Amino acid sequence: MSAQASMDAEQLRGRRVLVTGGTQGMGAAIAALFAERGATVCVCGRTAPASTPDGVHFIAADVGSAAGVAALAGAVAAAAGTIDILVNNVGGSSSAGGGALNQSDEVWDAALQTNLMAAVRLDRALLPAMLAQGHGAIIHIASIQRRLPLYESTLAYAAAKAALVAYSKGLANEFGGRGVRINVVSPGFIETAAAARMIERLAAHEGSSIDDARQQLMASLGGIPLGRTGRPEEVAELVVFLASARASFIHGAEYVIDGGTVPTV
């Protein structure tokens, strides 16, 4: 462990963390790094993973509904008490593609419930205890699609993530002066199992190969100047940093991690 990692471990030891959607992909990488740095971590998902790292406690929950979020909040309180760090990572799209006019009310509702309302409800459940203890950190995982929506396949998802960023800014303005920092991380094309499934759905809809679908997706994003996709572990490093004392003056900000896909510089 590097000197900086050792310092982070000292700062995070004993901190209680909840990572939603923490059983696979970016969520699993985030949870594992928090645990490695000394935190006590709860993760939730609809299906239990085959295994979890030391220091990570799994809670079965579906945060796509108000009842599911309420049950999760109760289970987390019983397992860990007051949460110090909340990472609202759960998200995704079940759209089969076909453009904006092919997205049904059911697709839109599912996207909004999973990518926006899950975070809103969980913040509402856990933020009061953070305020009572006088400190906390909330990190919402959005997406660069909130700026570069893929209208052919995931427009509802992109719109929900755009709403999540706007909501996060309002939350930060309201609660920053009371000891709780709120920030957003917006990843680009990260190589996860969920990304692979999206590519497969796109290939099935277009009748193309997986490689062609991948290239189509990368082209629709405008390419990746670094010449590669991102890794879940790279997102995890950013999230853990933002939750740490090293980021104590970072608040109400959005951090894009996309290999340069969004041309902002």
Question: Can you describe what's shown?
Answer:
The two termini are 33 Å apart. The longest helix is centred in the middle third of the chain and has 29 residues, at 105-133. The protein is an alpha/beta fold and 265 residues long. Strand 1 (16-20), helix 2 (25-36) and strand 2 form a beta-alpha-beta unit. The model has no long low-confidence stretch (mean pLDDT 89). 47% of the residues lie in helices and 14% in strands. The protein is built from eight helices and seven strands. Helix 2 packs across helix 8 (232-243) and helix 3 packs parallel to helix 4. The chain has helices spanning 3-12, 25-36, 66-80, 105-133, 155-175, 193-206, 210-220, 232-243, and strands spanning 16-20, 40-45, 56-60, 85-88, 136-141, 180-187, 254-257. Strands 3-2-1-4-5-6-7 form a seven-stranded parallel β-sheet, sandwiched between helices.
Q: In summary, what is this structure?
A:
The chain has 265 residues and is an alpha/beta fold.
Which terms would index this structure?
single chain; 265 residues; alpha/beta; seven-stranded parallel β-sheet; 7 strands; globular
Task: Itemize the secondary structure elements and their pairings.
Elements: H1 3-12, E1 16-20, H2 25-36, E2 40-45, E3 56-60, H3 66-80, E4 85-88, H4 105-133, E5 136-141, H5 155-175, E6 180-187, H6 193-206, H7 210-220, H8 232-243, E7 254-257
Parallel strand pairs: 1-2, 1-4, 2-3, 4-5, 5-6, 6-7
Helix pairs in contact: 2-8, 3-4, 4-5, 6-7
